[in-house]
Amino acid sequence: MKPFALYLLLGASLSSHLLAEEVIAEEKHTILFDEDSCCPSSLTLQLSQGIRRDRHTHIIAGYKNKPTVMSELIYKNIQSYPTHFEALYKTPTLFSRLRTGYGLIKDGDQKDSDFGKDHRRGAWSRSKADVPKGYVFDLDFVLGHNFPAAYKTTFTPLVGYTFDIQKFHIRNGVQTLGFDYRIKGFDIAPKAVKCNKRLHGLRSYSRSRWNAPLVGLRIESSPTRPLTYHGEYNFLFALKYKEKAYWNLRRAHFDTSSSRRKGFGHKALVGTRYNFNSNLSLGLDYQFMHLMGKGGSITACEEKKRERSKSFRKATNASHEVSLALLWKF
């Protein structure tokens, strides 16, 4: 009986040792891999309110690129308050997101400069105006594949498509004329003249549209239970830029279309989430966007007389946005 009791004691000891190793392994696996966040399917709805600031430039060249910069429009300090809605669906391998937002512009400035020589020399007209209203709009859809990694981190390569619109209303203009160069087709004195002239009745607008496919990468991590962190970068290629503008004082319409093969852009996002429970979360996000359309042409039509198309050089739009988000997970 003594050998049997000894074997029984050794067997029990070995079983408890193996069981303890299994429990430790499961705990390590739980620490390294967040099965709760990547395995079950889930639908998350997000509503966010942000504050955004834009800077938009629009540059055209003269006929046959002479001068290289004939007119430069700059919209700066464009402040808006966009509201975003987002639907995010995740499975163990799939990541999909539809996001849209709209915000009213409350304040901004516009500056318009015309040049007669290359390298922004020979300025013959300058004007400044307010941008008291308008709107910004964005819509994008992305699809990706989740790759879980250690320490509750997930890498997700992305593909998708994005649309962006900005519309600026231009009011309260003041023009400064400084003629120092004669341009063919314009009644401009060769002698420099400087004066300020208020543009009474100015009610013009500019509407820009951007669209492009994108590729990107998203990283999400949950090092601690209440908090999750995420970062995302998207590269926009084959970006198309179109602008319609109207200058009411001359009854002039302008249509701009860029070359798709030359346009590109960037969108970057970082944020954090505080999870109150398995369903409700509060988030804070920061997003940066930079878009560039290049090449193409611009056509002007003034008082029903179509003018010759000019070379469109480039347009850019850079924006910064901070938003507070409320999320509900199903």
Summarize the structure.
By secondary structure, the chain is mostly beta strands. Helix content is 11%, strand content 69%.
Key features of this structure:
single chain, 330 residues, mainly beta, Lipocalin, 14 strands, elongated
**Beta-strand share of residues:** over 45%
The secondary-structure class comes to mainly beta
Order of helices and strands: HHEEEEEEEEEEEEEE
How many angstroms separate the termini?
61 Å
Shape: elongated
Characterize the biggest β-sheet: 14 strands, antiparallel
For the secondary structure, the number of strands is: 14
Rg over CA atoms, rounded to whole Å, is 29 Å
Low-confidence stretches: 1-39, 180-192
Can you say what the CATH homologous superfamily of the largest domain is? OMPT-like
Describe the model.
- The protein is mainly beta.
- The protein has two domains: 1-32; 35-329, Lipocalin.
- Helix content is 11%, strand content 69%.
- Strands 1, 2, 3, 4, 5, 6, 7, 8, 9, 10, 11, 12, 13 and 14 form a 14-stranded antiparallel sheet that branches.
- A hairpin with a 3-residue loop joins β3 and β4 (121-145).
Q: Would you spell out the secondary-structure blueprint of this structure?
A:
Blueprint: H1 2-32, H2 35-38, E1 42-60, E2 71-90, E3 94-117, E4 121-145, E5 147-149, E6 153-178, E7 194-199, E8 204-221, E9 227-237, E10 240-247, E11 252-275, E12 280-302, E13 305-306, E14 310-329
Antiparallel strand pairs: 1-2, 1-14, 2-3, 3-4, 4-6, 5-6, 6-7, 6-8, 8-9, 8-10, 9-11, 10-11, 11-12, 12-13, 12-14
